[in-house]
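Reviewers of the previous submission asked for a worked example of the structure-prediction workflow described in the proposal, so we include one complete record here. The input consisted solely of the amino acid sequence. No template or homolog information was supplied to the procedure at any stage.
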Amino acid sequence: MEKNSQRMLDLINKRFSDILSEGFKLFLRYYKTLILPLAIFQILVITFNIFLLTDLKVYLDSLGISFLDILDKLGENTPLTGGDWNLFSLFFLLNFALIFLQNLIGAIIITIAMCSVSNYLYNKQMQIDISFFSSFKSAFNKKIFIVILILGIFLPLGSFLLMFPSIIIFAFFIFVVFTYNIEGAGKPLLEARNIAKGAFWKISGVFIFNFIFIFVASSIYNTVLNLFLNTDSAIFSLNYNLWLSTRNYPMLILYQILINLIEIILAPLFICLLTSLFVTLKARKDLGLKYQRTRDPIHTRLIEELPRIYCPYCGVLIPSVKKFCPRCGENLSFMLNKERKE
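From that input alone, the workflow returned the following structure tokens.
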């Protein structure tokens, strides 16, 4: 029990830099386990985008205009005709529809991807032995539809209409990828909200850090790739347009995999960083501590003053004594009877 108390103390005292560092350690430690399923999900995003949206892209190209053409037209002194306005309206509408559908497909699949490994990473971070395959299989239950609805549909819908709703949804409910599959969390949305409460900047910081890290790595990779393949050349663009017009799906998929290779390779990074943050915030919440902005560490005395109940079999922290341990399932009736007598 003393060991568990010290571990909880270490968790709640972590600074943001410690959380990022721990996230990278998770990334390196379990990369071999995570890369295959998460890379498959990333390739699924590419595949669905190509099979479902290629026709729309070809039709947009057939309109024969671009955003630069529209700006040039608007800058001319010649008044625009009704046909021009109709063409511009159609062009903008279809482009917004294309962007929204791309975001929707990506959000749904990436949400499922995070759910598939979140429970495994959480248990590993809590030093609980668990099989990846059993954890992966348990991720696909009926509660996952709640996660898909919130993060896979409402999030891109909010970003399409206004950025503010999507930011709120992300900051409030991103931890639902963990809570929906944690035993004892009866209301996963409420649990996710309570854990995230007061940690807006840390959640945003994890997202921004992950984005910048992948953006820099991708920029370097694409620069090197362009030196060898000259992807900006007219000949390469002609070949790409030919693949589009002839619906050469295999070449389109290979091309997208090639230019998005860094995103595929680094796919496990975000969920690892998020797991590190989630474990720290959940420990604070479980111990009844409000989020603290101070840099001063929480002293052991504060931990000792808080009631702590641990399962004598697996060591997991239990908010209140129940007949059976929510983690290992062992009978805890003797603890329940003892508590009632007290």
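Residues 15-297 form one domain. We consider this example representative of the routine output the project will generate in years two and three.
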